[in-house]
Amino acid sequence: MTDSDPQQERPVDRPTDRRSLRARLDELLQRPPQPAPSSVANAPGVPPVGGLAPVVFRRELPRPRRPVPGPEPAAGSGGLRLEEAVPGEQFDGPQGGRAYLIRTSLAELAGSDALDQAFARALEQPDWPLRTWLVQRGLEPGPAPDTVVFLDLETAGLGSAPLFLIGALVWSVQGLHAEQYLARDYAEEQAAIARFLADHRHRALLVTFNGKSFDYPFLRARAAATGVAFGWHPGHLDLLHASRRAWGRLLPDCRLQTLERYVCRRARSSDIGGELIPAAYHAFVRTGDATEMVEIIRHNLLDLATLAELMTRFPPF
Question: Greatest CA span in the chain, whole angstroms?
């Protein structure tokens, strides 16, 4: 998902950080919510501060805007290994091949189970604001938590570029948890797509951000390109369109990280820019160094968490 900020694109002159994803997530900082402009903070429809504690990610990777000349390090030459940085499991795809699955509890990521509780409670309320939105579009008026899947993709570019990370957020008896299907090289794309569909094609409601224009058609196109039978036509709730209706006149824009800042009252510090993700993935495939993959996986996790929280914070339409 692309949601860049020019301030996040500047290189920082700090040492390369080779710690694991778990170590970085453990450093989520607690600090007072970022103040919204008075016109937003006091406007009807923008919910009060609450829910998740602020989440701040600090990025410590120098990221020059121009290619640096010279040979790249060979795979296995001392770079961070994916399996060491991001614990997960290798799996065999339903149609052959292999890929990598990373599971993360949202309560573990956010430091509390407040969002788990808010999500389940919102869907149970007869006056849940998004219920009217769903009914008007002929979708399930009262989805159960375990019928919902949040989806966010990371791709190696646009058009016919490969899809390398499928982020899904789903509900279980333990609460909300992310399942991230990672193609560690281009050949693993088919296995990642096939396993995601096998695991989640039974879910009735798909929730995305700009997914009607990008995520869902891109996933369907890459399934066709890799020979995976799709056959999944869930109800689709695109939170971008609902957000524009709810807050479009109150906020500077309706990008995901703008909504995260003003509506969810959380902020990211030095998150990887979406426009940098394709080059970072191609570099990982060439070198085997997973340092930047840790940032991409973390970026995808936080996008999923924001989607879930937005679903609980809409005002009445």
Answer: 61
